[in-house]
């Protein structure tokens, strides 16, 4: 475009010369010469104006030329202010984001098996890398510290009291008691020969075997009767158990002594070498299983992730209300984040513009708007020629 505009100026110069040379033979060429002369003036004036935006014309440091390089700092500052106040306001950002259906698009995309499988594969493939990045000792120590930190400020006795209160309210403690008594009764019945042997071993040698056997039978019958009685709905044992449970709940909720004992027990357990070794073993086992599964072509973890993604996308796609809420949350979060960080974004724009050298800045601006500026030169050539022709005609009339 620059060559075209310059070439047009050269053509006007040639036309002007030829018109001057032959106007004595052809007086009408005076009109052509007037057009060409004024066209050259318009072309040169607009060339000067366009060039002065980006550099000094002909290298001459004429005042108010090379406008963009000379005002680089001000351009960066003004551009940053313009972006901050006209593009990065909450209303503008939120309004633009309102056109995007984030949840619906994501749900539709993930509902396709190939896409869900691809996302699941990406997530699964990242697991081995994450596991290899973490040292086993560091992971085990992190788990211990995390568990200890999570329980540090927890009031154990009141928490246990509330849990027991829930069990009591649903009479689940009676169910638990019945299960335990049933286990004890079954264990006694299954180990009758062993109990008989122990009774015989601890009986006096002078005691007749028949009496010893009767003692054993009565002992077993008595124990079984007590267990059966304890399992009864109206049993005195049930009342005692209920009273003991309620007393324990009350003491756990109110007695500092219980909290101290539970805290000491927990601290000693967390700091015990066996517990530390157990946590390390658990981590080793979990990481080994995850590594083996996620590196397998038939990864169960990947299959579960894929199923979960499709289940979530399907449910989301069928629920416009949730989509609307999720979209509004995303838009609000994104808009607030952008507005909160707009000073950093604008500062980045300013710093980038400041970091450009003047030649780079001029070249970037000229590449973006230079084509239209060259049209100004072309239009100036034509308009200038027409004005010159008009003035020449008016002059002849006067």
Describe the 3D structure.
There is one protein chain. The chain contains 19 helices and no strands. α8 crosses α15 and α10 packs antiparallel against α12. The two termini are 40 Å apart. It is mostly helical and 398 residues long.
Concise structural overview:
This protein has 398 residues and is mainly alpha-helical.
Our estimate of the beta-strand percent is: under 5%
Structural class: mainly alpha
Radius of gyration: 46 Å
Tell me how many strands there are.
0
Shape: rod-shaped
User: What order do the helices and strands follow?
Assistant: HHHHHHHHHHHHHHHHHHH
The main pleated sheet reads as: none
The N- to C-terminal Cα distance equals 40 Å
- What are the low-pLDDT stretches, counting only 5+ consecutive residues below 50? none
What is the number of helices?
19
The helix content is over 70%
Question: How would you state the average pLDDT, rounded?
Answer: 79
């Amino acid at each position: 475009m620059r060559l075209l505009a310059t070439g047009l100026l050269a053509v006007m110069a040639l036309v002007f010369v030829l018109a001057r040379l032959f106007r004595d033979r052809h007086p009408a060429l005076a009109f052509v010469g007037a057009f060409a002369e004024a066209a050259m003036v318009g072309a040169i004036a607009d060339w000067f104006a366009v060039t002065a935006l980006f550099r000094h014309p002909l290298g001459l440091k004429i005042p108010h030329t090379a406008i963009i390089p000379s005002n680089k700092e001000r351009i960066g500052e003004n551009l940053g202010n313009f972006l901050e106040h006209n593009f990065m306001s909450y209303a503008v950002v939120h309004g633009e984001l309102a056109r995007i259906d984030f949840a619906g698009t994501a749900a539709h995309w993930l509902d396709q098996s190939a896409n869900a499988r691809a996302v699941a594969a990406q997530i699964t493939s990242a697991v081995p890398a994450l596991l290899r990045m973490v040292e086993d000792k560091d992971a085990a120590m992190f788990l211990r510290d995390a568990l200890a930190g999570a329980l540090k400020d927890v009031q154990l006795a009141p928490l246990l009291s509330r849990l027991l209160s829930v069990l009591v309210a649903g009479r689940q403690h009676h169910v638990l008691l019945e299960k335990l008594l049933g286990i004890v009764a079954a264990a006694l019945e299954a180990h009758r020969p062993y109990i008989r042997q122990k009774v015989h071993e601890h009986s006096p040698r002078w005691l007749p075997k028949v009496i010893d056997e009767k003692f054993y039978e009565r002992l077993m019958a008595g124990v079984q009767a007590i267990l059966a009685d304890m399992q009864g709905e109206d049993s005195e044992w049930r009342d005692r158990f209920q009273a003991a449970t309620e007393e324990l709940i009350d003491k756990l909720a109110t007695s500092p002594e219980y909290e101290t004992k539970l805290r000491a027990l927990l601290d000693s357990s967390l700091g015990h070498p066996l517990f530390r070794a157990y946590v390390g073993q658990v981590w080793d086992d979990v990481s080994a299983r995850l590594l083996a599964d996620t590196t397998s072509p038939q990864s169960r973890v990947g299959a579960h992730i894929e199923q979960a993604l499709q289940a979530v996308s399907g449910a989301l796609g069928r629920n416009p209300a949730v989509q609307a809420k999720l979209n509004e949350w995303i838009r609000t979060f994104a808009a607030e984040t952008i507005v909160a960080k707009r000073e950093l974004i604008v500062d980045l724009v300013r710093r980038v513009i400041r970091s450009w050298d003047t030649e780079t800045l001029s070249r970037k601006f000229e590449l973006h708007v230079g084509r239209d500026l060259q049209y100004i030169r072309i239009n100036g050539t034509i308009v200038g020629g027409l004005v010159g022709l008009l003035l020449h005609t008016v002059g002849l009339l006067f």
